[in-house]
Predict the structure of UTP--glucose-1-phosphate uridylyltransferase.
Amino acid sequence: MPIRKAVIPVGGLGTRFLPASKAQPKEMLAVVDKPVIQYIVEEAAASGIEEIVFVTAIGKRAIEDHFDRSFELEYRLEQKSKTRELETIGAIGKLARFAFVRQNKPAGDGHAILAAIPFLDRHEPFAVLFGDDIIDGPEPALRQLFDVYETYQQPVVALQQVPKNEVSSYGVIAGTDVGGGTWEVSRFVEKPKAEDAPSDLIAIGRYVLTPGLVAVLATQTAGKDGEMRLADAFAGYLAQGGRLYGHQFEGTRYDCGNKLGFLKAQVELGLKHPEVGAGLADYLRTRGK
């Protein structure tokens, strides 16, 4: 069964980007000429997603506006015969069908996903994309996860190999390599110390969730920080005998949830941009002299 629906939680405060995120969502910060969230939605659409549920919070209205029509702007562009710009903004709202639901309190990514469940078919798998990661590659990273799901019909997480000193910031897996960059996961450990980590393979913000996994998530209780974590649901699912797969996607990930990753995305995607790429490359060469 093709996966056609996705959930994108965007309720975070973005405190690492203050003061830039004080009056606008961090997901709306631009990389070259598009907000981060648009890159993520474009990846979902290119993977075959047709319906997207954003889980939002107060102060996130700009995301809704971005994926809605702007009649006044369209009118002004049409009057000025700016056809290319008109087509560009008109295409944004056609990437998918969008719904928006408020997370009634900041209670973790697992809680955010459960807030979207009434908008989904409870008997179908769906995708989850977190709003920080831009992944650039020849094939959408999410599409690669769908290929794994189609083979195994089980939940799938996106994996990336990182230096061992970085694993303490992520969920880390242990498992068996089943070929083609795919792993059958046997353990899922959230933010372990480097010396305790079962591997150097971390889970990043792309997932395929199944009804069975969601049923486990719904039984989870909040941790000491008051938040319900998707990572705990993965661990619980495995403990109950569920099968979970991970896939090392092909592509370059830019963690736009931190300033350095955001700047790397600006440079690398700027170099690929048809309008500014050549000029940026020339500038960087002068900086390197």
In short: Residues 5-287 form a domain with the Spore Coat Polysaccharide Biosynthesis Protein SpsA; Chain A fold (CATH 3.90.550.10). DSSP finds ten helices and 13 strands in the chain. The longest strand covers residues 171-179.
